[in-house]
Structure formats: structure tokens, C-alpha cells
Amino acid sequence: MKVPVSITVNGKQYDKMVEPRMLLVYFIREELALTGTHIGCDTSSCGACTVHLDGKALKSCSMLAVQASGKSVTTIEGMASGENLHPLQEGFHMEHGLQCGFCTPGMIMCAADMLKNNPNPTEEEIRHGLEGNFCRCTGYHNIVKSIQYAANKMQESA
Amino acid sequence: MSYIGSSVKRVEDKRFITGQGRYTDDIVLPQMTYACMVRSPHAHAEIVSVDIAHAEKMDGVVKIFTGKDTDAAGIGGVPCGWQVDFKNGDTMKEPPHPLLVSDKARHVGDAIAMVIADTYAQAKDAAEMVTVEYNVLPAVTNSKVARADGAPQVHADVPNNLAFDWELGNPRAEVDAAIAGAHHVTTLEFINQRVICNAIEPRSAIGHFDTAYDKYTLYTSTQNPHLIRLLLCAFVLGLPEHKVRVVGPDVGGGFGSKIFHYTEEALVVWGSNQIKRPIKWTAERSESFVTDAAGRDHITTAKMAFDKDGNILALSADTLANMGAYLSTFAPAVPTWLHGTLLQGLYTTPLINVSIDAVFTNTTAVDAYRGAGRPEATYLLERLMDTAALEMGRDPAELRLQNFIEPFDGVEEEGYVTQVALQYDSGNYGPVLKRGLEMVGYEQFRADQKAAEGTGKLLGIGFSTYIEACGIAPSAVVGALGARAGLFESAQVQVHPTGKVSVFSGSHSHGQGHETSFAQVVADKMGIPMEDVEIIHGDSDAVAFGMGTYGSRSLAVGGSAIVKSIEKVLEKGAKIAAHLLEASVDDLDYAEGKWTVRGTDKSVGFGDVSLTAYVPHNYPEGLEPGLDFSSFYDPANFTYPFGCHICIVEIDKETGVVKVKRFIAVDDVGNVINPMIVDGQIHGGLAQGIGQAFCEGAVYDESGQLVNGTYMDYVMPRADDLPSFEIDRTVTPCPHNPLGVKGAGEAGTIGSTPAVVNAVMDALKGYGIHDVEMPVTSQKVWNIIHG
Amino acid sequence: MVPSKFAYHKPTTLKEAIDLLSTHGDDSKILSGGHSLVPVLKLRLNDPEHIIDVSGVASMGGIKDNEKSITIGANSTHAEIANNAALKEHAPMIAIAASMIGDIQVRNFGTIGGSIAHADPAADWPAVLLAADANVVISGANGNRTVDIDQFFKGLFMTAVGEEEIITAISIPKSAFNKNSTYVKFAQPASRFALVGCAVAVANADGYVTEARVAFNGVSATPFRDGNVEKSLKGSVLNGDAIATATASVADGVSIMSDHFAAENYRKHMAGVYARKALSALA
């Protein structure tokens, strides 16, 4: 039996009827057609589905949509303001932090949380902070540099 | 203006960093249904019965197909695209690979039924209610065990599970005699373990039969849409090729695993015509683990013989190659023509013989995984070299330098002809090793290593100097070697009336950045801004033909096809320009987007010429309008990148934990179009190669279950498992393609694995061991130290 | 990755939650952050008919700094615990363990109540809670009861929580040993759960150990305290020699788990290594 949920995504409130068993990631991808949030595994390991829930990074495959009802979600589609890319988006572009792009949204969403709590991380802290996200293309080398780029940029403008 | 050689930021990034990439699973079609496969939980089991009666009636279920349905439709299964013959000339054993099995399951994950419903959740619910009765049989997962008499038979008509045997090189007796008489012989028996490709995007396919046009469309996460179409039409479903469109949209990494034609692709295409609705299937990760073709899985015995001065005299190698339960698309080529042919390495070894037994087991099929055969060959050679150096008391770097083939450019000097069927294009091997030694600070390292003695840490250094054969081609050669397809590439350069350019490439980008690096080539060669160039790929309705992307072939083969088309465009453009300038073609120079009459200031721009081509009012007599050319480029040879990888590990004696402290890679991939992209390819390759060495590897239990079939158990390298890489390159241009490029996609993976293991062996050299099995886990190292 | 169907309930009071549990009994599962339960549901390893989401039960949230103890509401997330000033001061190993669980994303939403109810022997909480002499507050139709942590973990994925009961809080005493405590982990490289997790809490007086609590997870199917190590340390000066003596035979007599990451002998060895690491950090 479907139940009502009301979830704000990227600033817009959505009221929908969903099955209680629907995972938040399917709500985002299928109910809202926001397909920037990806599914890379079924064990909450890969981090490709990372979004923010009330400002904190969440693996959206590990939460039911009903659990998010009344809350606010930000996805990769909500990171830029208009034409202005988020510093992390810019960093991934400038430092070649992505190849196939599949893990990228999750990486960016995770890194955004990381930088919120630690605006000036060391390389080691960045690498450790990415422990919930897999990339198979980049060897992480340029992802680290991308996050450093963003950290510097955010520090400068802070 | 020069784009070539510059680290232009990628044009494709924008859609990916803003969440607008469009992968197969992102595509939704009207009336689309969802498929969930019922898969065998057993590695080897007769299928006694399949009961769909209850499942069929469940909510939302549209249709359930079983093996009986595909059998009744006369669908034989997916074919193998490469034929290798037995040593005695018999054709390889090629048992059918059904879309849905009806007689018996031959590996965990073999599909038995496809359940189609209005939603994926409904399909999943119903799939759970399909009842299959099995008669479970003993299973075999190890290729050595599978060859023994009395082993379980994967296919009734394949005795001793031998798909084929094969050999290459000098006569075995000659090689054996040289080994027998040698001053020193290094022997290694090792396992190059099975690894799972693990592209982060799980495979996905949507089949759509459009009744209005009687036309099929397949969206699929593939590295080569046209090849999938060819196989689908000519071998699997017998569909008319002009009525089938295959689209490989954005693809989330391939690494080989998305080259092959998979059963699910054919099932959704066929099924969509049966139910007259589109069908989407997307793998869950647990399914990927048991259905994506895996990599490696060799068991090898190899011997390398030396004279008293350390010169290599001979090499023999005997390998059991696990094929899995079925022959995947290119599987037979991997242990043979992509592995045996590479055993010359960078060395002057005068006698080489390699022998392969390809073996069926009750496991998921094995096929090309990043490097495909060449990493296995490099592992074999480079483990032997470091082991030999240790045994003979020689420095491993010096031993290599001594045995390297002398430099040759392939122009003034002939290409190097190997003992194993190849002719290297160009090479200069000393400098990569010397540069690596410089970067690592070799003497300082040996001092540090000595200083660490007596502490709780062991330091080790490992070398690997490799060569690879890339730009897989030419067609005639691969055809002679058993390929059932050509291996050229095609490209169309379409100049629009306004001077903008659309390039249709048969290569397929799934992370490689073709939309950028190809555009750099086009913009430079045509003298126009990159913004005026669009690279289109991955859609068989847009791109006339293509062979796809694998084997580090895109720029060397696909890029060359683009260059050929550009040459045709400029040749015709010159005729139009000459007409407009009232000059002779021979008197024109083309540079920076305009034709100039030599020695004058009379010129006409590319845009004016393009417009004239499509508005041919004032136009050369007899010349066709338009400015649009296609080319098929079939190269003269493979390309042969090479390089040197050096790894430093630190081992904690108390725990056995191995840490990769530094990794140095000096690669020579020929000319470089975009250094940033090439570096990125190297980084990613290194991570995969290093991953195989220290953490990855499929583990099966006795019943044939994949024990580590999830990310909770299969160890993928994470950011904090790896160091930042130290990389550099030398440039030895390829002499036979117009760009001088060799290919960079696989180099990192091919070279890196043995460097790590050699480093571990160097660190553990005081413990009297001969080999350590990959992955080199802390448990294994601890066992050695405390054994 | 689709759970079986279930009905979803979201009580706002504890009483409501317990009433729902009483009604649905063993057909139901409690969900707080969902980071232990949802992964199980989506692989269909469990298919309850009712999910009772207690995240809205206000009384189950928050970390209270009391005079003699710190009460951690069962709904507290690992991140809240890792960053809690009172816990960092009075029981640092609790905050340290919390900071090592999963990853940023999991720590943001996974809860301590959910984790210990799941009772994965390789999870990080059991060892620190055992070492901390924690009490688990369990609520049911007949009110609250407090279970000593020593009596809480009953085996692989089994606890002392009854079918119609809910873990509502975990209480950590403000003791001398908790104030001087730490947690170390040798992680399974894929899941990063513990192959060996070791929590140590040591009280000293006049330079001598008056009480030592040493607990392990990951090593055995049930997390355990190692009485031999604790006894050996008591009365000693916590230095290298005392630590070496005490940890010479860690996990003796315990049934040790084995898998392809760590066989029994290696796990036992690593338990000793990590006990030494942890104790040395306090020496």
C-alpha cells in the first residue's frame, strides 16, 4: 500500500504516493527523474548514490523514501547556482577528477560534506574521507587534487 | 593555435559534474517494462523443472520467458567472436551459450528465466516466486582440477573440459634443450588470479521494438555498439541489420567487461518484440559479480634460462587459462594472441615457446580485462626477471638493461621481429628504466632499505619493464589469427555550410575523453577552433560503422581514421579554394583555417569554402557539392607502447600489512595529444594493476560459490589504499600511423602488477621464499614472516 | 535491490512504538537510522511485514551529560557521538569508535541503537561498550529495564532484546577507566568492519592499574572481554613490560572466527597486536 511522502529536493517540495519499501535513491531517480544520483552497488559500499539530507551526506540507497519525508534533499543537480558551478564541480573539471563520470556525483556530494567539517584537509584526510566512495577510473589521484582545488577556492572566497 | 600536446580541459565534463550524464539506466521509454532474471544459485546443476505458474499471475507481471521459450524460438545463444584451433588443427570446442538455459546451469548466475513486469519491484517479487527444481552436480572452478580425469564435465561434449590447446614460438624441443644446457634456470609456478572488472556502472540494456517502423533499438552499456549489432543480427537473433539500432550512451567505465555481447542484450531485444513494449534490464551489483566477464585466471609454469653472464637464452611457458563456463566474445584471443605473443617482452630472448590449455570450468566466463593477456605476459616475464636477478645475485635493473633490445625507430631501422609472431613498431627501452631509477632515487632507496633492517619494517623495491601490443589491428592479421571480425576503424568528418564540423567516430568513449582529444586533433588539423567541432559516437544510426574501444586502440586507429577523413576534406576544400582564388591548387598553402596563394596575401577562409561547397554557385566544374568524407583506417601493424614501473612497499613485520609507499611509472605511449588525459589513463590503470597485486581476487568455495561476490567482501582499492603516483614519460612516436600515437589506456594495468609483487618479494628476500600468491594480503605476508 | 513489501509505521512516542511492537510482534522490525536494517532488507535477507520507524521518538534521541553517567539516546548517530564533547572527555574510546564506523555517509545517519540491535560481531560498538561497562536501557510493555552490557550480546546477531522490546538508550558510566580509554581496529579491507577491534579502558591510582577492561569485537562470534589480560594488568604499572606480559596470550580459550581475510591463528595474533597498540596508547 502506498503512503504519502513530502520531500523537498533541491529546494522544491514534492508530494508523492510511494510504496514504503521504495529506497530514497529510486524516489530521486524514478519519481523525480533526477538521474545524476547513481546506483553502483547493492551493499551501501560504493557511494555513487550519495546525496545530502538536511545538509549531511547520505547514501540514498540506505534509506527509505518514507524516512526522508519532511526533510530536505540536495542532489548533484542542486549543487550549482545557475551557471555558477560549485567549487567542487569546478575542481573536478579543472583537475581532471573524473573519467566516465559515474562515481562523480557521489564523490562531489561526499567531498562537500567532508569540506564542511574540515575546510582545509590534508591529502591523507581527503583519502580517508573518501572511504565510502569507489572510483574505478582515476586511481583517485586527480580526485584528491580536485578536492584540494575546491578547498583552496572555498578558503579564498570565505 | 596548437591543441595537440596541450592539456585541454575536457568538454564532456560539464554534463557529468552537473548530474546530466545519460547512462543506459537513466533512459526511460514510454510503456517501458522491467526485467529481472531468475539465476541459478548453483554452479553446476541440472534443471529438472521450472514452474512459473504462480509468478505469472502476480501483480504487474507482463510475461515470463524461460529457456523453453528461447529454445522454441530457435535462438542458439551468443557466439564467440574469435576462433583458435587446437594444435592438431581441430576447431576449438565452442558449446552454445544459451540466453536462458533449459538443460543445466553451468555457473552461479546462469540465467534460467526472465521475468518482465510493469515495475522493477514487481519483476523482482515475481522472480522470487519462480520455482526451479535443480539436481545439483559436483562443480569445478579451478582449471587445473578441471583438466584431471574424472573432474566434473562442464559440457558433455568437451572431454576433460579442454576448449582448445595452442602453442607459439620456437619448437619446444629446441627451447627445452637450451634450458637444459643453461648456466642458470629460473622457474616459477604461479597463479594470476581471477579479478572482477567492476566498472562502477552496472551493466544495463533496454530493448525496444518499434512497431511503427518494424525497427529494434538496443540501448546498452557497451564499448562497441556496432559490434553488438553485428553479433545480434548475424549470429543470435537473425535480425536485418538495417532494422536494428544499437546505442551505447554514456557508459560508466568498461575496462573490457563491456566489450562483449551478453545474453541480456539479446533477451531484451527479442523480448521487446514478443511483448511489443520496451524492456529494461539493469544488473544489481551482486549480479554483476557473477555475470560480467572476469579477467586473468591463469595458472602458469614458466622457465627462463640464462648464460653465465646473465644473458637470456630461452623462455618456456605453460599456462592453463580458465575460460569459465562458456567462451565469451573475445575469450580465446586473450591467453593466446594477446598473451603468448607478448612473451618476447623488451628482451632479446632468442628462443621462446608458449603453450596454452584453455579450460572450461563452472565459473562465470573470463574474457578481456584492461590489458587482456598482456598483463599476464608481463607478470610472467617480470616476476621471472626479478626472481632471476635475486637468484643470480644480480641487480634487477642492470639485468634488464643488459637484455634490452637495442633502440630502433621503425623508419631508418627495421621494426624488431620477435620469436612470437610480432614485429615491434619502434622502441627505445633503456631510457624509461633509467628515468625510473632517477625518479625513485635508487641508490638512496637501497641505503634506506639497509637502514630499516632491524626495525619493525621491511622495505622492498620492485621493477617491471613491459611492452604491450595496442591499437588492435590490422584486419588481415587478426583475421589470420582467428578474429571473426575486422579490426579497422571508421570516421566521418562532416563539414557544415557554416564551417562547423561534426565528426562521427566508430570509437566509443566511456571515460577516455574522446570528445576532447579527438576534437583537439580535428581542430588542429583543420585549423579551426575546438568549439567548432563536435565528436559524435556510440549510436549506430548516427555513426556509419565502428569497431569500438578496447585494446588502447581509439586514438591510434579511430583517431587515424579521422585524420584520413580530414585529409580528404582539405584536399577537396583546396580545389574549391583554388577556384575561388582563381589559382592553382598547387600554389595554395593551408594554415590557420585559410588557404593562401603562396607568396601573396590572397586567401580564402575555411568558412567561405564550406559555404561554397553547399551553395555551389561559383564552383569548380565537375566537382560534387558538399564537404563530407568518411574513411576506414586499417593500420599496418599493432602499436607497441612500453614503460617502466617501480614500486616501493613497506611491510609491517608484526602484522604483515603491506603498504604501497611509492609508485613510479615512466611510460612511452608515443605522441601525446592531451597529457592530462593520458596521465589520467595511467593513474587509473595503475590503481587496477596495483589492486590485483595487493587486494583483489575472486574466491570460490568447493561448491562453486563466489565467496566474495559483494563489495563487503571483494576488496576494491580505495583512495586511502593508494599513494599519489609519480609519473613521467618518454616519447617514441609510432612510425606507422599519422598521429604517431601508440595508446595509453592499458599501460598502467599491464606494467604495475608485477612491480608490486616484486617489491614484496624484495622486502621478504631474507625469508627464503620463491613466490607469494596474489593478492598479497597481510595474512599471507604474516604467514611468510612467521611461518 | 528492492526490499520485500512491508507496512510502515512512524510512532512519535515510545508508548506508541511499543504498542505497535506488541501488535505485530515478530513480524516487525524497529528502524532508526536504517543503516543496519535497510541493507539487510534490500538484499532480502530479512523480510519483516512491519517496519516501525522510531526516529521520530524524541525521548530516544540526544546525548545527556549526567552527573555520574552519559546517556546516549538510541537514535543518536555515530557522527553525533563522535563529536560529543562530554564523551570525548569522559569516555574517549566511545567517540573514537564512533569515528571509525563505516564512512562519512554511514556515520551521519547510522545510529548506535540500530547497530547494537543488529549485533554484528564485527561491528565496532560491542568492544567499546563492553569495556565501558555500559548499560543498555530496553523498553517494553512493562516499562524499562536495564541490561548490563556483559549480558547484552548473546551470540552472532543475537542480543538480550526481547521481541516486543526496544533499545532506547545506552548509558556510559563516568568512571576513571572510561576517562582513560581508547579503541583500535584492524579493518576487514573490503567492508572495513573489524577483523579485530580492541577497546581498552584503564584506571590508575598512584601509578598502578586499579582496574583494566579489555574487550574485543571481530575476533569471535560474540564480542568478549578478556579476563586474563585484565587480571594480569591489575596492580601493575602500565608499561611496555606489563603490556607484553598481559597480552602474551590474548583470546586464549575463545572460539575464534576464520575467513579468507584472517585465519584463526592470524586473527588471534592480531588481537594481541591490537591489544598492545591500544594499551600502549594509554601507557
In short:
The complex is a heterotrimer of chains A (158), B (787) and C (283). By secondary structure, chain B is α+β, with helices and mostly antiparallel strands.
Verbal overview:
The complex is a heterotrimer of chains A (158), B (787) and C (283). Helices cover 34% and strands 16% of the residues of chain A. Chain A is built from five helices and five strands, in the order ββαβββαααα. Chain A has a five-stranded mixed β-sheet with strand order 2-1-5-3-4, with helices on both faces. The radius of gyration of chain A is 16 Å and the shape is globular. Chain A starts with a strand and ends with a helix. The mean pLDDT of chain A is 97. By secondary structure, chain B is of the alpha+beta class. Chain B has three domains: 13-137 and 201-252 and 258-291, Aldehyde oxidase/xanthine dehydrogenase, a/b hammerhead (Aldehyde Oxidoreductase, domain 3, Alpha-Beta Complex), CATH 3.90.1170; 339-347 and 372-472 and 637-786, Aldehyde oxidase/xanthine dehydrogenase, molybdopterin binding domain (Aldehyde Oxidoreductase, domain 4), CATH 3.30.365.10; 488-633, Aldehyde Oxidoreductase, domain 4 (2-Layer Sandwich). Helix content of chain B is 28%, strand content 24%. Chain B starts with 12 loop residues before the first helix and ends with a helix. Chain C is an alpha+beta fold and 283 residues long. Chain C is 33% helix and 27% strand. In chain C, the strands form four sheets. A five-stranded antiparallel β-sheet of chain C has the order 4-5-10-6-7, sandwiched between helices. In chain C, strands 11-12-13-14 form a four-stranded antiparallel β-sheet, sandwiched between helices. In chain C, α10 runs antiparallel to α11. The model of chain C has no long low-confidence stretch (mean pLDDT 96). Chains A and B meet through α2, α3, α4 and α5 of A and α1 and α18 of B.
Write the layout of secondary structure elements.
The complex is a heterotrimer of chains A (about 160), B (about 775) and C (about 280).
Chain A: E1 3-9, E2 12-18, H1 24-31, E3 50-53, E4 56-59, E5 72-74, H2 87-94, H3 104-117, H4 123-129, H5 141-157
Helix pairs in contact in A: 2-5
Chain B: H1 13-17, E1 33-39, E2 45-51, H2 53-56, E3 61-66, H3 67-72, E4 104-105, E5 111-117, H4 120-128, E6 131-136, H5 143-147, E7 162-169, H6 172-180, E8 184-195, E9 204-210, E10 215-220, H7 225-236, E11 244-247, H8 263-275, E12 279-282, H9 285-291, E13 295-306, E14 312-324, E15 352-360, H10 374-392, H11 396-403, E16 416-417, E17 423-424, H12 430-440, H13 442-452, E18 457-467, H14 475-480, E19 489-495, E20 501-505, H15 514-526, E21 533-537, H16 554-581, E22 588-591, E23 594-597, E24 603-605, H17 606-614, E25 628-633, E26 642-652, E27 658-668, H18 675-694, E28 726-729, H19 747-763, H20 778-786
Parallel strand pairs in B: 1-12, 10-11, 14-15, 20-21, 27-28
Antiparallel strand pairs in B: 1-5, 2-4, 2-6, 3-5, 7-15, 8-13, 9-10, 9-12, 13-14, 16-17, 18-26, 19-20, 19-25, 22-23, 23-24, 26-27
Chain C: E1 7-9, H1 14-24, E2 28-31, H2 37-42, E3 50-53, E4 63-65, E5 69-73, H3 78-82, H4 85-90, H5 92-100, H6 104-109, H7 112-118, H8 125-131, E6 135-140, E7 143-148, E8 153-155, E9 158-159, E10 166-173, H9 176-179, E11 181-187, E12 194-205, E13 208-217, E14 224-225, H10 227-233, H11 240-246, H12 264-282
Helix pairs in contact in C: 10-11
